[in-house]
Amino acid sequence: MNIKPLTPDYYDAVIALGNLVHGDNYLDAEGLQAMITKGTKFGLNACFVAVDENNQVCGFRTSYAAGQWPIDKWCTPTLWPVAQADMAYFKCSAIAPAAQGQGIGPQLLKAAVAVLKQQGARAGVAHLWQQSPGNAAVKYFTKAGGNLVRLHDDRWLPLCIEEGYICTICGNECHCQAAEMVISFE
């Protein structure tokens, strides 16, 4: 397994994987390019893919550099261990079903954290899918040092209403919870 920066060469595979794992209309080319832009600072890209020996994408992680992402109503900066200006954002991650359980998620997270630290971030926050199969998202993030800040109901419902997102569990009216979790880099 090789961890590589997420470049346009991998966009189609990443979009297909993201939509397979998270639901239809979760990712598109424009949105993915916006993620890469928010994740690039000082020429360093904090978004990665995991590829197998045939250069096939088995997983990916997108992350935003500190100071380059919008803090919205789903964020609780008063409970974060660092200032907003020092907080990176772990946007999205997906592992191909056949590759799950092989430690790819933690490898992608480790690569992202290394770059985010080089960019100047002191911590990273994520909204993890509480209803992921076996609650795997929260479990792996907790194992990586993540601490729960707050639970948010209906986190992805606006995406259903405004962008046509189809949740793999709820359909076109997602009521899944998001676990706002923080990993400190210090």
From TrEMBL:
Entries under SUPFAM superfamilies matching the protein: Acyl-CoA N-acyltransferases (Nat)
Record keywords, A-Z: Acyltransferase, Transferase
Alphabetized CDD domains for the sequence: NAT_SF (cd04301)
Keyword Metal-binding: no
Signal sequence range: none
PROSITE patterns named in the record: GNAT
GO terms for MF: acyltransferase activity
Name assigned to this protein: GNAT family N-acetyltransferase
